[in-house]
Amino acid sequence: MDKRVNTVSEQWIRLMTAARQRWDRLTEDDVQDVRGNSERLISVLQARYGFPRSQAIRELTAWRQSLTAGAA
Question: Which candidate in 2, 11, 16, 40 could, as Cys together with 34 as Cys, close a disulfide (CB 3.0–4.6 Å)?
Fold first, then answer.
């Protein structure tokens, strides 16, 4: 298997784990279905937490920033 594919797969697993730690109402199926798609994650956050779209976007933005800050 291509080394880059392994790296992407490993990163995706870490991101799914991080998402479930941040938002504990997300199910395994939720994070599998999102597959890295921001719009899907926004929709799932709205459904699971009752967030209005604007708040779901703020949540996603804050999460992305925390991941970036943690990698620095």
Answer: 40
Exposure on the CB side of residue 8, measured as CA atoms within 13 A: 7
pTM passes above 0.90? no
| Half-sphere exposure of residue 32: CA atoms within 13 angstroms, side-chain side | 3
CATH class of 3-71: mainly alpha
Cα separation, 30 vs 34, in Å, equals 6
Domain layout of the chain by residue ranges = 3-71
Report pLDDT for 43.
Answer: 96
Q: 21, 31 in Cβ contact below 8 A? A: no
Q: Would you state the structure tokens that stand for residue 18, as one six-digit string?
A: 């991080």
User: Considering only CA atoms, which of 72, 23, 31, 70 is closest in space to residue 49?
Assistant: 23
